[in-house]
Design brief:
Elements lengths: L7 H6 L6 H4 L4 E5 L2 E4 L4 E4 L2 H4 L8 H12 L12 H15 L7 E3 L5 H16 L4 E4 L8 H5 L4 H5 L8 E4 L13 H8 L10 E4 L2 E2 L5 E2 L2 H13 L3 E5 L23 E4 L12 E4 L19 H14 L4 H23 L6 E5 L2 E5 L3 H13 L2 E2 L1 E3 L5 E4 L7 H23 L1
Parallel strand pairs: 3-15, 5-6, 5-7, 7-10, 10-11
Antiparallel strand pairs: 1-2, 2-3, 4-12, 8-9, 11-12, 13-14, 14-17, 16-17
Helix pairs in contact: 4-11, 5-11, 12-14, 13-14
Length: 426
């Protein structure tokens, strides 16, 4: 495969903070479904999907059509929080198709264009409602790159970029942090009930049901139910960050459905627009909606093209359970194939992780996992690493990936694992 290198202007002019372009140093030009193409026409199967922003694939034709039609008729693009037809249609569709069938009565906040905006709004509202400052987060969590979101993020490198103390947040052990059957959050309950524990009464607990950036760590449904119960007993608001794992990534629209819990606050972004357009939501129980008009706002909280594609995505993919069943089935197929690799290379200590179409294969080191992703890239597959030491090869393919693309991508990945591990043995 001939590699298309980026221009000198691009590499010299753009900030050194760029990251994905270092792993995949080609210039991409177009994308369809689960395949991206560079400027020389070389195809790359995409098991990255915009870090989970493209659950319905690149340039999904149904979503593209409604977007083009909307723009062609001069539909409103920017409107802050003014009423628009696109906004109304999205809210009605979201309530009728997603919220009400799941017994959720949450109100919708449009906090700004990205996931960090949704998290900041959640933290801010939780503190306003309770009058408390402290928030409980979890080891290996990732919630965003702004200061409030970083304060509840576990990654040391990302936290270090803040340049200031990150306060009013306390990390607790995530499920299975101690590699056993210990109910890790019971430590938190002990501190909450111990007058000598030194823990300020928290405003909220923020949790991911599956830690994507943290290494595809999936919490057990029982653990999540017990955590929700703990929050209720102690008057603590439960925030579920569903930014990467929501919108069907694990099967159901929300990743917490399997645990049968009802969070007080839910954050969504990434695939909520369906097309990769900027959009975020913070969903709050009605009694928590105590903001004054304009107390939380942002210039780009009314991006109507995203409302249009989000509405069509919900209608097309969430009016029945076909996509949910497909996601669960494909996830089980990956699990089976990963388990085969784990058994084949037992001496290497591989671990298969995840749920739905959020899957990970953990290696003994980030160096090995990185070699696997680079070998995969050289053969036409985009897949990233995650975890505190980048030791997990992380799969987030589009939920709508075709059978042919799915099979081709899995074969490239499996061969990359074989090549790297057998070369290591030799």
């Amino acid at each position: 495969m001939t590699i298309t290198s980026p221009t000198t202007t691009t590499t010299e002019l753009e900030s050194e903070v760029r990251s994905y372009s270092r792993s995949w140093p080609v210039t991409f030009d177009r994308a369809v479904g689960a395949t991206m193409y560079d400027t020389d026409g070389n195809p790359y199967i995409d098991f990255f999907a915009g870090a989970g922003s493209l659950n319905y694939g690149h340039n999904n034709p149904a979503l593209k059509k409604v977007l083009i039609d909307y723009l062609a008729r001069d539909g409103v693009v920017h409107s802050l929080d003014m009423f628009t037809a696109a906004r109304d249609e999205f809210l009605t569709t979201f309530a009728d198709t997603i919220l009400r069938p799941r017994g959720l009565d949450h109100k919708v906040v449009f906090p700004g264009p990205g996931g960090a905006n949704a998290v900041e709004a959640a933290l801010k509202l939780a503190r306003k409602v309770t009058g408390r400052e402290s928030v409980i987060s979890f080891t290996n969590a990732f919630h965003g790159m702004t200061l409030g979101a970083l304060s509840v993020t576990g990654n040391a490198m990302k936290r270090g970029g803040a340049g200031v103390p990150l306060v009013h947040a306390t990390p607790m052990p995530y499920d299975d942090y101690f590699d056993g059957d210990v109910q890790d959050f019971l430590y938190l309950e002990r501190l909450l009930t111990d007058s000598g524990g030194g823990l300020n009464q928290p405003a909220a607990v923020i949790v991911e049901t599956i830690q994507g950036e943290g290494g595809i760590n999936a919490a057990r449904a029982e653990w999540l139910r017990n955590l929700a119960g703990l929050c209720k007993r102690h008057g603590i608001l439960l925030i579920v960050d569903d930014i990467q794992m929501g919108c069907g990534r694990t099967g159901g629209f929300f990743s917490f459905e399997e645990a049968d819990i009802v969070p007080d606050i839910i954050t969504l972004s990434k695939s909520i627009s369906g097309y990769g357009l900027p959009m975020a939501l913070t969903l709050v129980r009605p009694e928590l909606d105590i903001w004054e008009p304009g107390e939380h706002n942002g210039t780009f909280r009314g991006f109507n093209p995203a409302f249009v594609t989000a509405t069509e995505a919900i209608r097309r993919y969430w009016s029945d359970d076909a996509l949910e069943r497909s996601t669960i089935s494909r996830g089980m197929a990956i699990e089976s194939r990963f388990n085969a690799l784990v058994a084949r290379y037992e001496s290497h200590g591989l671990v298969a992780k995840g749920r739905g179409l959020a899957r990970g294969l953990q290696f003994p080191s980030g160096e090995l996992a990185g070699r696997v992703t680079q070998e995969a890239f050289a053969n036409g597959l985009l897949v990233e690493t995650s975890g505190p030491g980048d030791e997990v090869v992380k799969l987030l393919p589009p939920l709508t990936i075709s059978p042919a693309e799915f099979e081709a991508g899995m074969r490239i990945l499996e061969q990359a694992v074989v090549t790297v591990l057998e070369n290591q043995e030799n």
